Amino acid sequence: MATNNSVTKNQKTNIIVITGNDETFQNLLSIIQKSENCGELSGITRSIESTIEQLQTTQLPHMQQITPLPQNFSLTLDDYNRLNSVKLSYDIAFRPTTAKQDVSAFDHISDRRSGLLYSTSLLYDLGMKLITFIRSIPEFEFLNEQNRFILFKYNSPLVLYMRICLCYDINRDLVFDPEAQSEEYAIVCKQLLQYCYGEQLDLASTQLFRSIKNVTDDDPIILQLMLIILTFTKSLSVENIVENEQSTFMNSKQVDEAQSIYASLLFRYMIKKYSTYYQAARQYSQLIQKILRTQMLIRTFQQFFQEQLINTRDDELNPIMKSILNLQ
């Protein structure tokens, strides 16, 4: 259903960073929230890198680091209930529903194209589980149908990438879900993707997986919350809406408020995890930096798919994946 709302690429980005009064953190907040062009992520990233460099060389006075936090930075009983609900919803949505995948799944792959098509089928299966997870989030269900469609269609590539990151095993250097697949399958799958995507894309992806895991201390709760936060991110959606001349959000404020709930919850959780506001803010800021880099990598992957799978038939590639990968 079309609306009369006008959309331009100069809308503010919607990745929210919760910070205090420290000037360095306020600069970071300004860069992310007040970017004049949400499509030029490279410019935003360069600015953030400069700010992070300042942050890393900034030494807060000892008393400022140990000052007790205000009450509104502490996790409440409602927060703990929400965290438990997110974890339960995630576990239910992504639990295996079939026997473990093994190497026999690769028997039909004969060339690069068939390998790419197989990888998109894996993304489709993952996407269906992602829908189950996101629809268990009350704030998502409260949105109207058009808003839900726009957010999922345009944000799902980034959210799917973060879900894959959750399964990345740093020690094995593998995307590996031991409950859903054998280790042998994971190893062969890695080799297949290296062949299909090429060494450069595979290396860039692995480096991002590793850096995101490191900056979050491999904490699944942080990444589970990020799945929700990124689902409610409007910046990518707005850019794609403009490019494809699609209808825009019917209630933009409701989307903002939904994202703010989980962005604030994540920051309070990180304060609890790292014990100090200062350390939590550093980790949060670095995580946002990784997300921005991931957005750029996702664009590269989408362009790659568009080049390699052009004119793919519906019986080869699910129409939903065609839409998500912008192959239509």
UniProtKB/TrEMBL annotation:
Organism of provenance: Adineta steineri
NR LBD domain span: 94-328
Transferase is among the record's keywords: no
Taxonomy, superkingdom: Eukaryota
Entry keywords, A to Z: Receptor, Transcription, Transcription regulation
InterPro entries linked to this entry: NHR-like_dom_sf (IPR035500), Nucl_hrmn_rcpt_lig-bd (IPR000536)
SUPFAM superfamilies referenced in this protein's UniProt entry, alphabetically: Nuclear receptor ligand-binding domain
Record lineage: Eukaryota, Metazoa, Spiralia, Gnathifera, Rotifera
Protein name, as recorded: NR LBD domain-containing protein
